[in-house]
Amino acid sequence: xxxxxxxxxxxxxxxxxxxxxxxxxxxFAWVSHQCFLPNxxxxxxxxxxxxxxxxxxxxxxxxxxxxxRLWAYIGDILHSKKLQSLxxxxxxxxxQTSLVKIINERIAEFSLSGSQKNICxxxxxxxxxxxxxxxxxxxxxxxxxxxxxxxxxxxxACRQPEGAVAALLLEVTHLALGQYLSIQQQQVNPRRVxxxxxxxxxxxxxxxxxxxxxxxxxxxxxxxxxxxxSREVRSQLEAVLRGGVFxxxxxxxxxxxLLGQQQRDTKIGTPKSLLTPLDTVVTRLLDAGHCxxxxxxxxxxxSVAVLYRLFLDSYLKEGNQFLxxxxxxxxxxxxxxxxxxxxxxxxxxxxxxxxxxxVVEQLLSSVASSNIYNVxxxxxxxxxxxxxxxxxxxxxxxxHLQAPVPAWFRCxxxxxxxxxxxxxxxxDDLLSSAWIDAEVTEVRTKKAQxxxxxALFQTYAKxxxxxxxxxxxxxxxxxxxxxALRQPVLASGPSAALRACLLELPPGQILDMxxxxxxxxxxxxxxxxxxxxxxxxxxxxxxxLLHCIMFNMPxxxxxxxxxxxxxxxxxxxxxxxxxVKPLLALLLDTPSPESELWLQKVSDAALLLSHTWAxxxxxxxxxxxxxHSVAGTLTGNALELSSFPSLLPGVEPQLWKxxxxxxxxxxxxxxxxxxxxxQRMRRxxxxxxxxxxxxxxxxxxxxxxILGSGRSSLSLRTTASWDGQVGTVSAPTYxxxxxxxxxxxxxxxxxxxxxxxxxxLASVLLRTLxxxxxxxxxxxxxxxxxxxxxxxxxxxxPLFPEIQAxxxxxxxxxxxxxxxxxxxxxxxxxxPLRQQVPWLFEKDHTLVAHWESRFAKVxxxxxxxxxxxxxxxxxxxxxxxxxxxxxxxxxxxLGLLDVISALRLDSLLPHHHLHYFLLLLTMAVSTQGHSCxxxxxxxxxxxxxxxxxxxxxxxxxxxxxVMYVSDIFEIVLTSLLRASGGLCVEVDDPSWLxxxxxxxxxxxxxxAMLIQSKLSLVLxxxxxxxxxSRCKLHTEAAFSKQLGNQSxxxxxxxxxxxxxxxxxxxxxxxxxxxxxxxPAALPELLxxxxxxxxxxxxxxxxxxxxxxxxxxxLLSPVATLLEVDLSQHPGGVGIAQGTDxxxxxxxxxxxxxxxxxxxxxxxxxxxxxxFQAALRFLALFFxxxxxxxxxxxxxxxxxxxxxxxxxxxDIPALAAQDIEPHLGALLTQMLEAGTMEDFGLVVRSILxxxxxxxxxxxxxxxxxxxxxxxxxxxxxPLSGEKAGLLWRACPQIISALTLQNREACQExxxxxxxxxxxxxxxxxxxxxxxxxxxxxxxxxxAFSILLTVPLDHLRPPEYGRVFLGLHSVLFSILQxxxxxxxxxxxxFLNSFNxxxxxxxxxxxxxxxxxxxxxxxxxxxxxxxxxxxxxxxxRPEDFTTSSPFLxxxxxxxxxxxxxxxxxxxxxxxxxxLILDLCIEPDVQxxxxxxxxxxxxxxxxxxSDYRKYHKAKHEGEKRYAA
Length: 1520
Fold this sequence. Notes:
Layout: H1 2-5, H2 8-13, H3 19-31, H4 40-56, H5 64-79, H6 81-88, H7 97-113, H8 119-131, H9 133-141, H10 143-158, H11 164-186, H12 190-213, H13 227-245, H14 251-258, H15 260-264, H16 277-286, H17 293-315, H18 321-332, H19 350-370, H20 375-381, H21 385-399, H22 406-418, H23 427-436, H24 443-462, H25 466-477, H26 492-504, H27 507-525, H28 533-552, H29 562-586, H30 596-623, H31 636-641, H32 655-663, H33 667-687, H34 693-709, H35 711-714, H36 734-744, H37 746-749, H38 755-768, H39 773-781, H40 787-795, H41 804-824, H42 830-836, H43 846-857, H44 865-878, H45 887-902, H46 910-925, H47 933-951, H48 965-980, H49 990-1013, H50 1017-1030, H51 1040-1043, H52 1048-1071, H53 1081-1103, H54 1112-1128, H55 1147-1164, H56 1168-1183, H57 1194-1207, H58 1213-1233, H59 1236-1249, H60 1253-1256, H61 1260-1274, H62 1280-1288, H63 1290-1306, H64 1312-1328, H65 1336-1348, H66 1356-1376, H67 1378-1383, H68 1385-1402, H69 1414-1432, H70 1435-1438, H71 1442-1453, H72 1460-1476, H73 1479-1488, H74 1491-1517
Helix pairs in contact: 3-5, 4-5, 5-8, 7-8, 7-10, 8-9, 8-11, 10-11, 10-12, 11-13, 12-13, 12-16, 17-18, 17-19, 19-22, 22-24, 23-25, 24-26, 25-27, 27-28, 27-29, 28-30, 29-30, 30-33, 33-34, 33-36, 36-40, 38-41, 41-45, 41-46, 44-48, 45-47, 46-47, 47-49, 48-50, 48-52, 49-52, 50-53, 52-53, 52-54, ...
């Protein structure tokens, strides 16, 4: 065979062999083991390489197909595992430079022309070379080839190819960048690296980075490029630029270039060839090169910010701040915005402005965050060079107003934060363009504007120059301008900034601002106000400002200095005399028709100031005894003169008639008038102690005026939102402001409103509530006040039920609305309906009161008035109910039921309780036969849930004055059995099960109230049992004429009713506390119910559809039946003695359910309710020894079933956590009743499951079930012999856990499903075995577990759980086994340091990704800090170890940059360890730590002494 194939080399070189045969032979030679060629790999590669080189040098003619197959052949060889194995074993393959050059040429051709001829195969070859270090060495040997390749790859990527090329191209670029970075870091010639990067790589890298940053490569249609790969390439590009352009070893060149004159002043001459790196970078950046013109400007803008950030990252350190600044103007000069003065005639689009201003913002943010600008140093050392630059930039921004762009506001905000003097010369223009005259509508822009205004106020507040700022603001407002086009001066954002500023100012400055407004009013506004609409608008703006100052200034009190009080009183008198009265006097003149707007604005200003003055005057009178109001007390004459509040002294009463007429057309004026009337009510109530008729009349008139003023506006369904500021009340927001005023002051208004007004308020409240969940959610997201938010707040307020008049009216309003909807579904007209269900037409509870009085006069309970109502109701239910609801009506009623759910139904008065009971019962029975299952079922569920809430209330007994419990029971069940026929839901549907639970709770509540009230127990329970007996479950004929054929849903309903009846009657019969009149009647009734229930269960089991497991509706009844059955046969409970044991009835049923549950228990674990009911049955069955089957011990069978559940991998983790407490309760009961042999069986089962052979056999579930069973066992209360047996087995258990943990941690990935429960169980063992574990070796085994469990490569939730488990074990050792810990302190510290280092690693600031897992890391850091505190609490044990703890901490801390929150928590803990260190320890640390760690320790110890130690020494100074 060797002879046959030895001539392949000659055939490949032969000119007579066809290329088709050559390619086949070459492929065969590579793959075949029978072909023997010396140095075969090199020979074949050289043949393919030489063929391609000859073709591309025009020395050989080949078809395109042959060329493509040659490239593919080289790619197959380079990617083959065979070649990689040979290279790994030390074989050398020489690629030759010629191959690399033609690869570079093909990629260059693609980058220039876009021709994709063979490009995928070429890129694949390049990828293989770069990914194999032994082959990539050719690029390391010839760096210029790698630079050329990288340049062409970047330019190719900038073409944004589509399809498979895109992903492959970016992957190759990623590999090439990695290769170049490794070479770049080893390069010792900085000029060569700088030249390579600026000459060949700068432009393509910046363009590609821009495209990647814009998300271009990850958009649809651009190929499947991973966002992670895109981020990594972007990071590599920045690393190339940083390592090439901003190397540490060319800092001197930058210094010479940027600070050249200063440097040359101290030198005689300059170098001949001076490297000017920044000029070179800027020149290359501005050169368009291969970049398209429309893209070039954007690339330059984005690149400027990146280059400046990289410059700061490389060179910013103490002493280099001015150097770092000097780079800023050079780079800023690259932006088009820097040449605006030269392009004055050019207009830019908003997008262009946004791009440029975003870059300016990034540059300024870098300056601010890096602390480059020091005002004093700049002025003293550098002739204010920085200040002049920022000043020119500020002028540029203010002269080119760009209010629609948020970045424009943010740039100004940063300049303000740098130095307020930068913008102070243009302060008036800034206030005008950024606030007063700015047209800002977009939400993001408004937010940026608010931040700027807030920064302005905060800056001037710190400088104590707010009056200066305010003076400029007033000057801007009072400038001649088109006032009608301006936005409101004090919207929510500026108003909040001014309010926050006022809280920080001294009273003197606030009074100065107050005085400035008054002076402007008097000097500029009032003289020109008459008939001047523009001045009227300015007066309203100044009034809003003055209102904000007066309302939000800190209140005076008894401790306020007297000069401040007197000046405040003087200002109040000036406002009243020099402002309010003149404004009101202007309204007396009869205006011309065209001056309506003027009259409205002057009226608004006058009323706003009047309301402000009245409120502030009252507040000052209450809080400051030294303040004397000019208003005085209200007299009787004053109350008689006018309905307007006499709170403004010296104002003629006749004037207010004119003001009222004017205010009717103004929303703000009406609102202020309402506030004035409300203020008069407050003042009257404070000053008048008597309830004279004259005072009451005045209060009623005021209340009626406030309510009536906005009555027409509340009839409109507005969706407007209001920011809560009086000055922003307008026509759209007035209804919201008016409703907010009413609701906020209900306690004052309600006592003086008539009944009709209160009903009106209730109707508005109901009308303005959200009618759907979607509306409610949107209202919650709205930041301002809306009608819906106000109404919802009132509805949910705990004060609402206390306002009895309004609460009662609202209840009647809701009931009337429900009744109207029910009546609209009437099938017989309103006349018959009024006779059949009269409570739907009740308006004022007269009918309920009539019933109550009628029933109260009846003597014996057997007389029929109650029965008459119930029989009428029942006859309606059995026949066609006169009300049939449609889908739309059901939806409306569901919305009203949500409103009713928010009311406190358990505290209603009797008449309301009875009315709502009848109303809800009518609604519930009106759905029978409805064919809309989801909505109808939801409606029924809500109705019966609310009926249950009602019957848990304090007035529940009033229902029994109208109907017997048995009648209600029959009405409910009859209607539900009829309705169940129309419901198309499955018997195990969650909504149906929820409905059954609600109905059962309601019926149970009814019967419990019957027992509690002792209302004819035998009569009622007898009628209930008789009714249920007519509903035979085993035959459908008995009741089919009345209810129709019973569906599975109907059978389940009857089962639920029987279950609740047995649950109520069982304890009653067992206690033997029933009345003496019929001692045997109730047990007999219970027996009948049990027989019916057993028959029903057997029928459901026999006729039910085949299913995987028993539904909860059968599990709960059978458990109840067994419980009641056992309570009637006490001899059958416990361990049987001999053959004399009482066997409960239905034994075969119980045994069948038991055997079925044992096999189906794992399937029930997903549903907690079903599982809980199943365990309840098993517990009862276990206690009834008479029922135990003879096949085998029940204890063993149930234990096996529990282990099956614990080992089931299909049970979700959350469900497993939910069922553990229920399994623990069952195991506790089994162990209490079981023998020592049974307990030994449990322990043996655990030890067998923990055998390490299960892990070796990949049977993890057996080990997992044993660990979980051990956890359950430890939760059981054990004592005596059982506890002794467990602790004797404890050493073996701990050893087994150690082996299990070791095997689980060796798997990849780590089997956390086993590790987490092992840690929990180990912690519990150590805690509970504090006294029982005697051998310290077994405790020490825990350290091996702690040191084995890995903490890296975990997702945040997993990491948090594992960390908590490790911490619990460590803490258990520290607290419960201190002696063992002392002997193994190195192991303890190693385990603890693993936790500390892990938190540092997870809590570091990462370059990639966000801080999604930060909350978990913070919780772990808190645990570490707590452990530090526990260690510090044992100084005698850890004094010698404390320096080593500190050393370990600082050594690890120097490697990472932590999130501040994580760092603070860890430092709080290490400070406590430093408390244990004495001075020699500190000296030892300073001497022994490595240089980097020493710096970290120096900073740590400085902070410790400055913050922690000083604080605690201060506390000790005052300690006894």
